[in-house]
Write a structure and sequence with these properties.
The chain has 7 helices and 8 strands. With 201 residues, it is an alpha+beta fold. Bound molecules: the ligand O=C(O)[C@@H](O)C(=O)COP(=O)(O)O and zinc ion. Belongs to the aldolase class II family. AraD/FucA subfamily.
């Protein structure tokens, strides 16, 4: 699980999550999944100190897992193709999650083709305190249709076929949130619905 730690270090060193915020999980080919422990900075992850969970998200070995285990379980439960889940407190994504007038069904406009290809329709999940199991239930209701979700007043959670895919989608979400905020007050020309649809074929 060196790659999980390497990616955690990379995200932390580039300021994509701060302090001990954020958590990452990877589904194991033999069943179950590995998840980051609670209260550990992504920059301090150690391959010998990751938590092992079974397919139901039950803690079976290693340090105490993230308090958002149920959030990861909700993503895996709804998305059989998901091989990894990344949750961050990336600044611009969090900022967008607090805006009053965003469309909860599709938070960010299709500013670039890369955003459409990596993220698609970003769903806003109402606010719940971190670690609240009700957050898992809210996420489970949308995770089958959306691999990228934005937790209001909290941050993004993104599933991918593998860890790299989840990482790249979370990074693209953050950059698009930044562009969106930069463009506030300007008239913008996002991709048209047919331009966006052509990218998904
Ligand atoms: O926002 C929170 O508190 C959690 O969602 C989080 O990002 C870090 O929690 P742990 O993974 O339990 O450290
Ligand atoms: Zn969090």
């Amino acid at each position: 699980m060196k790659s999980l730690c390497r990616i955690g270090h990379s995200l932390h060193s580039r300021g994509l999550t701060f302090g001990s915020s954020g958590n990452i999980s990877v589904r194991l080919p033999e069943g179950g999944w590995i998840v980051t422990p609670t209260n550990v900075a992504m920059g301090d992850l150690d391959p010998s100190q990751l938590s092992l969970l079974d397919d139901d998200g039950k803690w079976i070995d290693g340090p105490k897992p993230t308090k958002e285990t149920f959030l990861h379980a909700a993503m895996y439960g709804a998305r059989r193709d998901a091989g990894a889940v990344v949750h961050l407190h990336s600044t611009h994504s969090v900022a967008v999650s607090v805006l009053e007038d965003i469309d909860p069904a599709d938070v960010l406009p299709a500013i670039t083709a890369y955003y459409v290809m990596k993220v698609g329709a970003l769903r806003l999940i109402p606010y719940f305190p971190p670690g609240d199991p009700a957050l898992g239930e809210a996420v489970a209701g949308f995770a089958d249709k959306h691999h990228a979700l934005l937790l209001a007043n909290h941050g993004p959670v993104v599933a991918g076929a593998d860890l790299r895919s989840a990482q790249y989608a979370a990074e693209e979400l953050e950059e698009t949130a930044k562009l969106f905020l930069l463009l506030q007050g300007h008239k913008i020309r996002p991709l048209t619905a047919s331009q966006a649809a052509a990218l998904k074929q």
